[in-house]
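Troubleshooting: if your tokenizer reports a length mismatch, compare your output against this known-good record of 522 residues.
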Amino acid sequence: MSDAPTDRGAASAGNRIDTEDRLLEVRSVSKRFPGVLALDRVDLVLHPGEVLAVIGENGAGKSTLMKILAGVQPADTGELLVDGQPVQIDGVEEALAAGIALIHQELNLADNLDIAANIFLGREPRRGPAGVLIDHARTHGQSRRFLDMVGLAIDPATIVSELTIGRQQMVEIAKALSVDARVLIMDEPTSSLSQSEAESLFEVIGQLRDAGKSIVYITHRLSEVIRLADRVTVLRDGANAGELDRQEITHDAMVQLMVGRDIEQLQRDADRQLGEVVLEASGLRSPAFPDHRLDFSVRAGEIVGLAGLVGAGRTELLQTLFGITPALDGQLKIGEIPLLPQDPRQAIRAGLALVPEDRKQQGLVIEMTVRENMSLPSLKRDARSGFLNRGREKEIGDRMIERLRVKTPGPEQVVRYLSGGNQQKVVLGKWLAMEPRVLLMDEPTRGIDVGAKQEIYALMDELAARGVAILFVSSEMEEVLRMSDRAVVMHEGRIAGELDREVLSGGEGEEAVMRLATGAAG
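Known-good structure output:
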């Protein structure tokens, strides 16, 4: 990824922004939770027709600040100004009245209602005596106007549950425009979008900016910041860490402000010796794509990236290998042992471990402690006469917290209260305690900050050096190119091809992956 600012096409703002005109201003806002100073005298300025990226590591205070602006949480101290005038925002209604709307990362729509009902929920146009009846004709007619503004050519009578996540997000934006919001806060808006849906969102952001709307854009994806942002505000440990104007926005500059230091880029050991094949599939057929048979292998000490577009079948393949959705037929060898796991228990016994895509729902028991989560796969192995071995549990928790540098008050901390990066380390820790032969990882760095990403990368390299075979799925091209000794590229449920390290590290690695992923390579 280039560090230089790039032509943003539809999202380009030129030099229209009047930096003297302040639409929204945050002055010395602080917020304290029990035992934590979440925001410490934070300042922020937003101009009309501007995309302002707010970035920082997990726990930096981004979400807290946005919730204060959107009326979800009150500030303890400080001042908010709109058009230079102080405003008191004590709830969501006050924020909307001030022209500020938050588009949540986890979309906030009623799935069982149609688009028009969602856009005007609680504000429906009325008709009849005393306005007791909803005017559905007006509701649908006005909805079309706001849908047109976000480029969504769809019947407002469509039920929201029938829409893709990308289209649901456009409905959220249309809903914000329907209340005449001048400030749209977007929290990790592309986290669940395909590449084409993300491109559509970027076009809409450019159009909104050209129409004078202001966007506060929160993301961990620094490439999106480089593409979209007119200015960047960086938070670190709840305080302002610095600002970058358009011409100053580079990957390195953002990272240095976020973490307060230069981050060493992981240097892969190109001469690392690979061992024997420890995972080998022949004619493997998964329930998700029964018409395709898969052949591939992973060697001890090898990191293999599973690349492909959304829906290519990568997650489904990992779930089949781990026995969540057992293979229909075919052969799978783990080491020298033939085994088609019928459930995760069989896979674990054979030496497989899975770090799932959704760590909160599938990888952790969110209300249990760090110690309890890390010891879950080891309970039967470490039990004494059928009873839990609390001493062994504590030993595992302490050891993995230290090894993985988990930021937590201690092993008895409930996992819910950890940052995303530290939650991911807990997921990894529970499997490392089992000393797996094969580690399956599905989007291992999704939703975690740049510092935690580097630690995950270093851990993957360390495990490979110890002989663990790693098969990982990633939708981040840079991650696939950087971490893979070899890439297996999938397209519509089949393996479209493989690329070795030499190709991946060359100048045309990304193009080679995309040709296979899109089916263009035949």
